[in-house]
Specification:
The structure is a single chain. Helix content is 44%, strand content 14%. With 248 residues, the chain is of the alpha/beta class. One 3-methylbut-3-enyl trihydrogen diphosphate (IPE) binds next to strand 2.
């Protein structure tokens, strides 16, 4: 029974990450094909982005396509890539009108060239916007990202640019595709699955998880508000005891 009136506007998470899951099952339940579910998922993205921006969330990271998703049937993968290109073209004007800055994380050079082109144009054309940053995780896998980080740091050590003693958590974070983005305080996953599916493993060390059974196309403003309200009623202890948190 939460709504906007219950949310503490001064304690809204700076960064919310979402595993947008359940498009296929949503479509199946309506007797439609999976791609119809994905296109309805874009509507849910639009509504959720607006609701997050209205609450002054600074970063919204959406898991849109995982490295593992390449193994889906060819028609679905192609459909998703086309949907990405079309959505970027359709939404660009509105992103700019609303001051949204677009970024992407993941193995972007592994995407088809049409996607890379639309993405880099949209990133370039929104780069000076000062509202919410929408981070699309595309061809993203956390283990891939960690592997790349290890390669980059070891090569810097080999070149003598970094000494082994200087390898610390900040250096590791700075070599991930999320560099410069604060860790999410809240991670939401729709569709009833209670797993992380190779998403932001390093970055969610102290993130609060919020799972809901609803499929992604049905997610929107009310559900985002409910998730934030739930988050605000938790005690984040970071290893301390409750009394220590209350004394801060
Ligand atoms: C999430 O919905 C979107 C992507 C992974 C691209 P799914 O396509 O995974 O939908 P379900 O989980 O099969 O219902
Ligand atoms: C996670 O959903 C990836 C995205 C939402 C893009 P999946 O549907 O691919 O995850 P699994 O396979 O159920 O773990
Ligand atoms: Mg799924």
């Amino acid at each position: 029974m939460s709504d906007l009136n219950h949310i503490d506007l001064k304690a809204v998470p700076e960064h919310i990450a979402i595993i947008m899951d359940g498009n296929g099952r949503w479509a199946k339940s309506k007797g439609e094909d999976r791609l119809y579910g994905h296109s309805k998922g874009v509507d849910a993205v639009r509504e959720t982005l607006k609701a997050a921006a209205d609450l002054k969330v600074k970063y919204l990271t959406l898991y849109a396509f995982s490295t593992e998703n390449w193994n889906r049937p060819k028609e679905e993968v192609e459909g998703l890539m086309n949907l990405l290109v079309m959505s970027l073209a359709n939404e660009l004007e509105e992103l700019n009108e609303n001051g949204v800055r677009l970024q992407a994380i993941g193995n972007i050079i592994g995407l088809p060239s049409s996607c890379q082109q639309s993405l880099s144009e949209a990133i370039e054309q929104t780069k000076d916007n000062t509202g919410i940053t929408l981070v699309l995780a595309l061809n993203y896998s956390s283990k891939w990202e960690i592997e790349q980080m290890v390669k980059r740091i070891s090569s810097k050590v080999q070149q003598g640019e970094v000494s082994q003693e200087k390898i610390d958590q900040d250096l590791i974070s700075s070599e991930l595709t999320t560099h410069g983005i604060p860790d999410p305080e809240l991670l939401i996953r729709t569709s009833g699955e209670h797993r992380v599916s190779n998403f932001l493993l390093w970055q969610i060390a102290y993130t609060e998880f919020y799972f809901l059974d609803m499929f992604w196309p049905d997610f929107g403003k009310k559900e985002l508000h409910d998730a934030i309200y739930d988050y605000q009623n938790r005690e984040r202890r970071f290893g301390l005891v409750s009394e220590q948190i209350k004394n801060v």
